[in-house]
Amino acid sequence: MAGLPVEPLLEIDGKNEEKVEDNNDIYINDNNKQSISKGALPVREESDQVGEREMALPPGSSIHRSGSRPQLDLSKAAIQGNPEERDPTILLPNQSDDISHLALDIGGSLIKLVYFSRHEDQSTDDTRKKTVKERLGISNGNRRSYPILGGRLHFVKFETSKINECLDFISSKQLHCSGIECHHWTSDSTANRNTVIKATGGGAFKFADLFKQRLGVSLDKEDEMDCLVAGANFLLKAIRHEAFTHMEGQKEFVQIDHNDLFPYLLVNIGSGVSMIKVDGDGKFQRVSGTNVGGGTYWGLGRLLTKCKSFDELLELSQKGDNSTIDMLVGDIYGGMDYSKIGLSASTIASSFGKAISDNKELKDYRPEDISLSLLRMISYNIGQISYLNALRFGLKRIFFGGFFIRGHAYTMDTISFAVQFWSKGDAQAMFLRHEGFLGALGAFMSYEKHGLDDLRVHQLVERFPMGAPYTGGKIHGPPLGDLNEKISWMEKFVLKGTEITAPVPMAPPGTTGLGGFEVPSSKGGTLRSDASALNVGVLHLVPSLDVFPLLADPKMYEPNTVDLSDHNELEYWFMVLSEQLPDLVDKAVASEGGTDDAKRRGDAFARAFSAHLARLMEEPAAYGKLGLANLLELREECLREFHFVDAYRSIKQRENEASLAVLPDLLVELDRMSEEARLLTLIEGVLAANIFDWGSRACVDLYHKGTIIEIYTMSRNKMQRPWRVDDFDLFKERMLGSGGKKPPPHKRALLFVDNSGADIVLGMLPLARELLRRGTEVVLVANSLPAINDVTAMELPDIVAEAAKHCDILRRAAEAGGLIVDAMVNTLDSCKENSASVPLMVVENGCGSPCIDLRQVSSELAAAAKDADLIILEGMGRSLHTNFNARFKCDALKLAMVKNQRLAEKLIKGKIYDCVCRYEAAQVEWL
Ligand SMILES: CC(C)(COP(=O)(O)O)[C@@H](O)C(=O)NCCC(=O)O
Ligand SMILES: [Mn+2]
């Protein structure tokens, strides 16, 4: 879940709305020792008191709005329709977030929509960016020109019986007009006379006239098989956590090697079933099918149980016991297994077979049992025929898609069991997270020059904004995102609440040997009627993202250290994040002036994030493979979704000011030291200053006990080697050499910085200065968007410029790196050498999270990495929660203070406030 883009807010208010109706051992040491290596720096005046950290933003402070944030252009906004209406639709004709493509798959029961919204390329006048680009040799000419430069793919579905709601939705969002046409709203459907929309599925024929009449658009019919295959190929190549296995209630994502994808069998289970052998893009053959499919289950089920909807029928099956109606092996063999041929007593010998001998009528059977019997009969049958076809063509992988599955755990388990059983484990059934959207995606792919074919996994970021994907419902509000609508949607969403969001207890998976499952085991009580609604996010297309080139083995790289598929871990982190929520909301609301609007947004944010947490507790793999980094990023994304730009802005400012005030003294003390003592003091300084972490509850409790500088001093005084992980001597040898041999300096170091205040100013900047002084170019790598109190790339140049006022080394390097211009700096430093300096640069990392997924970084970081031979990752988020186990092609130093007791125990068998200094040399010779 890494990456830059921020989801614009959707005003979607669909079916969901309809439902609405209805220990630490650290103490403050206040004796101010005068030695800098273990001492206290001067305590600043009263205004540094922690109690004042939460002061409101000073008048005139500007709020940084990220360039990647979609802004609403309200010019020429007009009310559409009757202005007297309570919530009239407001049209934003100049909104740049225009829609260029829409594609549809109109099936018998559901209409699936895939639509694309585009951003203008965010050109910027940022001088830092320009100089960095020049320095790093990034030219726009190197990059291919994408028709899609930053945009998003949305996935939405409607019931076909409610096609008018679908048409309203398309109309309200103007999805049927592209580009320039969008800017000229008219209610006259003739204006779109020449517009053609790609569509597949039988409804593309059936409803063509209705589309013409209501929207004035023509449907360009695309072949259903072509679309299914194109959609599946795109998903399997472009989305990291798309395919998964599902066995005995356990969902496991499968890493698909793009170079080894074909051939495979695609089984699409709609009303009927198609089995397609796929050999490549556009290369496929429908090899088989069966008329016993989703339509059969629904049709027979409706007749036999009087259920009103497919989902109701499916939900019934959850409580069913098919042994009351199916004839089992044990029924024939007097309760015994037929072990000679490997059949257990519970194996279904004949679906519905008991009905022939029982002297019973339909009314004597429970609808729940009928539904389960039907479901098992059809799923096993499909699984078996699929396997036989895979066998026919020597295919090992079978992907199942189509809306029959609709994320239903028991259906997937049953199909998987059949494939496993008949293939004796040789073939594997896999499922797709976007199972229902294959056709619509394929239809979308059939537009020419959309640029999607060339996008790679690392250029796609999936986000899960609240309320985005939905089925049906009334359309309210303006055609483009409206925060107010979203907030009220959240309010109602949670009022209805528990059914959608509360965790469902997981029943332990149970089987009874070869015969299969006794009763549905994968889920407890109820099937969510919006089962797939929260599993499919909005797909952001970000061509500027790259894989970090210094990863030793990108294919094996896993950013997360903490895997939340372990239920105990998930429960623990769920509790941590839930407990932090009230305080975070307070900070976020205060950062926006504490207005009523901010309070309402804060409340909606808390509801939305809690709903995500509850959803993930219920199904940890709902959004793809879940690690701790994903949860922490989700929290930041959620804040942005409700327009909280930077919740810790004022805290960051205060901590920067306090730290900058004591920096000159620190530099003077450092310069008095020997090279060796200085290096150790610098590393100690980084570790000590990493204590300023507003994401850690233990640390936040600590901040109430002293001023910034007191805490910093105390933290430094606690620095005792050996640290829990202590490779300092190895690092020192690489830096200073041994036995009279002096190693060459590193050419370029990438310093992945963490928190604002002391962490950056008194920790990482002095370390950067040491590297610069030794002739190593330094690139400070900082977040693109705010996350907790982390310093951002946008904020760093000002901090560096301020620090450079007291230090010639930093000043010359910052000038060489284009961070500051001469005139800005009033030098006070005594050492005035005029020689040219190696540069100090700042690049953004491409993320807005306290952690970093190095598979998706900014192109400027990727460019900076090309000449780098040292990377330093700092902080818990970047070097412990993520990347602790990452291996690099260059030397790597991981520095962090562990500010969580449980993590300390689990990761380093230590305790809270222990430190990590992990050094791993590149596998190349420097001597
Ligand atoms: C969010 C963080 C990873 C940030 O740590 P940092 O990278 O700033 O060192 C960390 O504060 C964290 O894991 N906090 C949650 C756990 C806790 O409150 O102990
Ligand atoms: Mn941090």
UniProtKB/TrEMBL annotation:
Its cofactor is Mn(2+); Ni(2+). Keywords: ATP-binding, Coenzyme A biosynthesis, Hydrolase, Kinase, Manganese, Metal-binding, Nickel, Nucleotide-binding, Transferase. Residues 15-72 are annotated as: Disordered. Pfam families: ARMT1-like_dom, Fumble. GO terms for cellular component: cytosol; nucleus. Pathway: Cofactor biosynthesis; coenzyme A biosynthesis; CoA from (R)-pantothenate: step 1/5. Residues 582-907 form the Damage-control phosphatase ARMT1-like metal-binding domain. InterPro entries: ARMT-1-like_metal-bd_sf (IPR036075), ARMT1-like_metal-bd (IPR002791), At2g17340_3_helix_bundle (IPR035073), ATPase_NBD (IPR043129), PanK_long (IPR015844), Type_II_PanK (IPR004567). Residues 43-55 have a biased composition (Basic and acidic residues). Its EC number is 2.7.1.33. The keyword Signal does not apply. It catalyses: (R)-4'-phosphopantetheine + H2O = (R)-pantetheine + phosphate; (R)-4'-phosphopantothenate + H2O = (R)-pantothenate + phosphate; (R)-pantothenate + ATP = (R)-4'-phosphopantothenate + ADP + H(+); (R)-4'-phosphopantetheine sulfonate + H2O = (R)-pantetheine sulfonate + phosphate. One of its GO terms (biological process) is coenzyme A biosynthetic process. One of its GO terms (molecular function) is ATP binding. PANTHER family: 4'-PHOSPHOPANTETHEINE PHOSPHATASE, PANTOTHENATE KINASE. Catalyzes the phosphorylation of pantothenate the first step in CoA biosynthesis. May play a role in the physiological regulation of the intracellular CoA concentration. Functionally redudant with PANK1. The phosphatase activity shows preference for normal or oxidatively damaged intermediates of 4'-phosphopantetheine, which provides strong indirect evidence that the phosphatase activity pre-empts damage in the CoA pathway. Hydrolyzing excess 4'-phosphopantetheine could constitute a directed overflow mechanism to prevent its oxidation to the S-sulfonate, sulfonate, or other forms. In the N-terminal section; belongs to the type II pantothenate kinase family. In the C-terminal section; belongs to the damage-control phosphatase family. Phosphopantetheine phosphatase II subfamily. NCBIfam families: panK_eukar (TIGR00555). This is Pantothenate kinase 2.
